[in-house]
Amino acid sequence: MNNLVTIGEAAKASGVSAKMIRYYEETGLLGAPERTASGYRLYGESDLHALRFVRRARDLGFSMQEITELLALWHDRSRASAAVKTVALAHVADLRRRISELEAMARTLETLAERCCGDARPDCPILDDLAGGS
Questions:
Q1: What is the 3-state secondary structure of 118-133?
Q2: pLDDT by residue (tens digit) across 36-78?
Q3: Does residue 43 sit within a domain?
Q4: What is the distance between the alpha carbons of residues 47 and 53, in angstroms, rounded to a whole number?
């Protein structure tokens, strides 16, 4: 490979921390990089591209399992785009479910906060609810 860079330079170029790069390698998400005679990791442009791919997928909230699947699809030039779309739409459905759950949590906490006097008394409907009392 030409223009090999160290893990620090790869981290800077990809927006993925060196610690996460090592983690992705340990878990098998990314392949093992080339190494110098003294054991330092070296990364080429294809490695950086893969790291940017992973970073963008993480930014979109994909799980590690989904990213593994998407990376495999990305590397498979004979894949059908329908397979990629299926993964993306399943992720959208999961995001919408989680948004709905978060909105329900916010509504519950707002209701509890409205019921709380917020004064010097120890009675608190928020704590009662958390303790299973309401």
A1: CCCCCCCHHHHHHCCC
A2: 999 999 999 999 999 999 999 999 999 999 999 999 999 999 9
A3: yes
A4: 10
Place of tokens 């990314």: 30
| Residue 68 forms part of a structural domain | no
Residue type, 54: V
What residues make up the domain containing 109?
80-134
How far does CA 49 lie from the centroid of its chain?
Answer: 17
pLDDT given for residue 118 in this prediction: 84
- Tell whether 89 and 49 lie within a shared domain: no
Which residue bears the tokens 């990305």? 74
Indicate the residue type of 88: A
Q: Give residue-wise pLDDT tens across range 85-122.
A: 999 999 999 999 999 999 999 999 999 999 998 888 88
Q: Which helix (H) or strand (E) holds 42?
A: strand 41-42
What 3-state DSSP class applies to 34?
A: strand
